[in-house]
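Risk register update: the risk of archive-format incompatibility is retired. Evidence:
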Amino acid sequence: MNSELDLFSLSNNKAENELSVSQISAQIKNFIEAKFGSIRVKGEISGMKLAPSGHLYFSLKDDKSVLSCVCWRGNYSNLKSTPEDGLEVVCSGNITTYAGQSKYQMVVNSIENSGIGSLMAILEKRKKQLLAEGLFDHKNKKPIPLLPKRIGVITSLGGAVIRDIIHRVSDRFPSNVVIWPVLVQGAESATQITEAIYGFNKLDESNGRPDVLIIARGGGSIEDLWSFNEENVLRAAFASEIPIISAVGHETDNTLIDLVADRRAPTPTAAAEMAVPVRADLLYTVEEIQHRINHATNRRLTNFNTEIISLGRALPDLKKATLEFEQRLDDLGERLTDKSIRYIELKRHAMLILDSKNVKPTQLINYFTEKLNNTYKNLEKLVAAKHSEKEMLYRTTLSLFDSYNYENTLKRGFTLVKTDSKKLIKKVNELQKDKVYSIQFADGETKIQIN
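Archived output:
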């Protein structure tokens, strides 16, 4: 039966013409799906949104119309490259309806780039944006360590890339290689590469943190390499604290990660060569440096020895040089002896003269005893005078204290008026009606209330 007739023919019976919303939606859905079947639609991607469920929602548009599209999670993960807004593509799938919003849409099974032109336009726009932000500046490039203990490799486990890197590292300088396997093309590859970069940076030394990272894959078309132009990958590479060597594609292939990375290798094998030196070359260099050091040391010692011999020849005969000083020392010794004898004689003569003039000890004792007695008497007088002066000052101070004592004032007939908070009332106008005040007399205290 013709589906068009099933949908639009009407019966004369009005009851037979009544359809539920679900029924009419189902008939429209069946009609549209049967009418179009599998189709290919060309247009520009717009409003792309990846839902938490993993389904991709976007629109295809041209200069006149817009077509809503959905790519289910299973088909999205199998896409060859990550779609994005502004990209001109050809989508394969089928037309259906979405009854929840009374609209038709295309269920997309695959997405192909319509041409290189749109990709290049997006690439150039992104390049200008990141260049303006400084992601390509050489001042931000980190040095590659000479002898890394551990090398992290972000690539696919399949293919020759990882084998070439491991083989080249083993040949040059055997090192510990840690692999973080990722997809290197397709819709999910950019997310996996980004997570790998951040994952390696979160490790510490005890957990196997690499000293250098190699991000690599083999050659391919611009669509195949597009993941390495994705903004999330580029920003993760720029933020990496670990130096990065990019080795994406062949020597003629160019991706934006080559500009962000700290070093760019034309091939994965070349990246391994940048990461580690040749062990034999290092040993040869070390031996050569050691030989040069030994040669320079021996030459320097020889020069020092020759110089010492030359200086020794220029020195005078020490024995001859000291004879004159020995003679002078003998002469000075004789002169010192003569002067010492004369000095001792002079001192002995002076002692004899002093002894003849010496005062007898008893005379000295009597003299100093009398002097001590006079000093003691003077001291007694000074102490007595000072005591009298302090006693008078004490009595004067005590008299002043008694005159300032308010209790003595109360004894003379005066009183103190205070509030409950012990504040002193000094004037009549400070008194308030209906307030209780304390009046202190010489013999006690009482309360009054002002009426």
